[in-house]
Design brief:
CATH class of the largest domain: Mainly Alpha
Strand order of the largest sheet: 1-2-3
Number of domains: 2
Radius of gyration: 22 Å
Bound molecules: coenzyme A
Order of helices and strands: EEEHHHHHHHHHHHHHHH
Largest sheet: 3 strands, antiparallel
CATH topology of the largest domain: Citrate Synthase, domain 1
Strand content: under 5%
Shape: globular
Number of strands: 3
Structural class: mainly alpha
CATH architecture of the largest domain: Orthogonal Bundle
Helix content: 40-55%
Number of helices: 15
CATH superfamily of the largest domain: Citrate Synthase, domain 1
């Protein structure tokens, strides 16, 4: 008997959840969190205010969330990691160890989400210092989450412009519909498992190169271009070789990625943007023109990674911290989805089409 049920590899086109959190409008180039436009949230909000909006539905632009201390047991686990461990592995380990110390109960709550979202930046900052032989720094409760993270990373309180720039990156990274890691988190909690298990699974999912983003590759490509005069030739040569331009194209957006537009504004208004920001905008102009000439049938526009690169570099992060920093930002969305899933839960348990041998006897 053949199995006639529909099968969609990668679950493409399958609606697997209802959500009131994020709406990605690819044709129009718009991203909404609970109905609010991403550009407006970046302009008027902070990451803690946006996270609170996702968790509770309430918009309070003054909502604050300082980073939280790392429990001793988690710090012991971080100290035991090799210094060449990947920051994403360290963060996943830290979230898992935090779950073991917190003994979270089901269903997940905004309070649990707040606790984990406040803890993780401290854990990543602690690992980043430990691996270079420095001691971790305790949270400063007078600082909000993003400046607090930068302070614990560097030992210096960031200036307002630097903190604002990274905060904008956190806001645009907070939520993006039912992407692979968010789906992972929802699957985990659908078994009535806990919020820390869901987020450590989501971090493992985000670690894969098909999901985790490409801002460090954008940095590499801009360095390869070298100068504004070389931009046009470099773009054409790269495309002639069949290679892709990093920071362009998107599975969902057919218009300019609204997150890129918001981050471009932020990058251009930074007090200390990386020297190559002007080169990057020149490369963007050329790339958009050449991509339109070569692919008139398909809109290939700038995506979020292109301007995430100068923002992350400009605030002083090293490229190997980019994926884990993205994971910190996505905590708000993951945990909001986990709360939403638990509020109207149905165990997520799809089926597989069996294509193996028919029933048979073991060889004698
Ligand atoms: N540079 C050059 N050509 C590109 C391109 C890019 N960045 N993105 C897509 N294309 C071309 C492809 O080569 C393809 O043409 P072809 O079939 O003649 O080779 C066509 O556009 C369709 O590409 P496709 O891979 O079907 O698009 P997708 O929607 O599956 O892929 C991405 C989306 C993001 C994976 C893809 O655009 C990409 O690789 N971008 C660069 C990496 C990047 O910026 N990633 C971060 C995403 S947020």
């Amino acid at each position: 008997m053949t199995d006639a049920r529909p099968y969609s590899p990668g679950l493409e086109g399958v609606v697997a959840a209802e959500t009131a959190l994020g709406k990605v409008e690819g044709e129009r180039g718009q991203l909404l969190y609970r109905g609010y436009r991403i550009g407006d949230l970046v302009e008027h909000g902070t990451y803690p205010a946006v996270a609170n909006l996702l968790w509770t539905g309430d918009w309070d632009p003054n909502h604050r969330l300082p980073t939280a201390p790392v429990p001793d047991a988690v710090m012991t686990a971080l100290r035991a990691l090799p210094s060449n461990a990947k920051p994403m592995d360290a963060l996943r380990t830290a979230v898992s160890a935090w779950g073991a110390t917190e003994l979270l109960t089901y269903p997940p709550t905004p309070e649990q989400a707040r606790g984990l979202t406040a803890f993780s930046p401290s854990a990543l900052a602690a690992f980043a210092r430990l691996r270079s032989g420095k001691e971790p720094i305790d949270p400063d409760p007078s600082l909000d989450l993003v400046p607090g993270f930068l302070y614990q990373l560097t030992g210096e309180k960031p200036d307002a412009g630097t903190a604002r720039a990274l905060d904008a990156y956190f806001i645009v990274g907070a939520e993006h519909g039912l992407n692979a890691s968010t789906f992972t988190a929802r699957v985990i909690v659908s078994t009535r498992s806990d919020l820390a298990s869901a987020v450590s699974g989501a971090i493992g999912c985000l670690k894969g190169p098909l999901h985790g983003g490409a801002p460090s590759e954008v940095v590499e490509q801009i360095h390869q271009v070298g100068s504004v005069e070389r931009a046009e030739q470099w773009v054409k040569d790269t495309l002639d070789k069949g290679e892709r331009l990093m920071g362009f194209g998107h599975r969902v957006y057919r218009a300019y990625d609204p997150r890129a537009a918001a981050l471009r504004k932020v990058a251009e208004s930074m007090e200390h943007p990386p020297e190559w920001l002007a080169l990057a905008t020149a490369v963007e102009d050329v790339a958009l023109r050449v991509l339109a000439e070569r692919h008139p049938e398909r809109a290939l526009k700038t995506n979020v990674e292109f301007y995430a690169a100068p923002v992350l570099m400009g605030v002083g992060l090293t490229p190997d911290l980019f994926p884990a920093t993205f994971a910190l930002a996505r905590h708000a969305g993951w945990t909001a989805h986990v709360i939403e899933q638990a509020a109207d839960n149905r165990l997520i348990r799809p089926d597989a089409r069996y294509v193996g041998p028919a029933e048979r006897d073991l060889p004698a």
